[in-house]
Amino acid sequence: MTNSINIPTMYSLDEQPFGKTWQEWTTQWWKWFFSISKENHPAYDHTGEGWAVNQDDPNVVFIAGTSGGKVERTVTIPAGKAVLLPIINFATSYSENPSLRDEIEMIAHAKSNIDDIVKKEVNIDGTSLIISERYRMQSPPFNFTFPTNNIYGVQDGSTRGAGDGYWIFFKPLSPGKHNIRTSGSCLSGKIQIDVEIEIIIKR
Asked: What is the residue range of 196's domain?
């Protein structure tokens, strides 16, 4: 097992990486996630080759989870970049759920789905992390645009959404290989997520 002193360092929730709060970063992650068409979406990528689609932030790399099931990926990223990825998360919008009457209902809908999570696990380089509520972050209502042929199969165009979930946010990783495994499931068992990623940091 990896010695604890070698575990990659994570940002705490009271930090503001590169001048943004966790809420701002997770909101930016969701906007990135929703902006990609289904045929190119990294959530459907089972190798890791498509991780970099629409990645344009100079400081942070976004890693997608999966729509369900188990995937194994290898991604190679530049040194010096932080890494933000979900353990398990959920978002909704007026486009997906037109029955939502207002933002209060939208936030409550996202919250109720994450309240149902019973399993949330992370292993980094052989060491399991204890996932508490401090890893949970709500992304308050935000505007975004669905592309044509989006992963939710809804009409393309502008809409408004909100998210909730458990996240990990690593400070820039040391050069070499890092193995990250995230898994989660809900109370009913309908949602089962298991993502194993080998991250290679260029020297």
From this structure: 4-201
Please write the tens of the pLDDT for every residue from 108-140.
999 999 998 888 889 999 888 888 888 999 999
- How far is residue 105's CA from residue 113's CA, in Å, rounded to a whole number? 12
Count other Cβ atoms within 10 Å, centred on residue 151: 17
The structure tokens listed for 137 are 């972050």
pLDDT at position 7 is: 63
Core vs surface per residue 58-73: b (16+ CB within 10 A) or e = eebbbbbbbeeeebeb
What residues contact 161, with CB distance under 8 A and at least 6 apart? 30, 34, 91, 92, 93, 94, 95, 96, 106, 141, 142, 144
- Which of 14-18, 126-130, 188-192 has the lowest average pLDDT? 188-192
To the nearest 5 percent, what fractions of the chain are helix, strand and coil?
Answer: 20, 40, 40
What's 8's DSSP letter? Answer: P
Residue 96, token pair as written in the block: 């997906």
Range 167-187 average pLDDT: 90
pTM as predicted: 0.90
Number of domains into which the chain is organized: 1
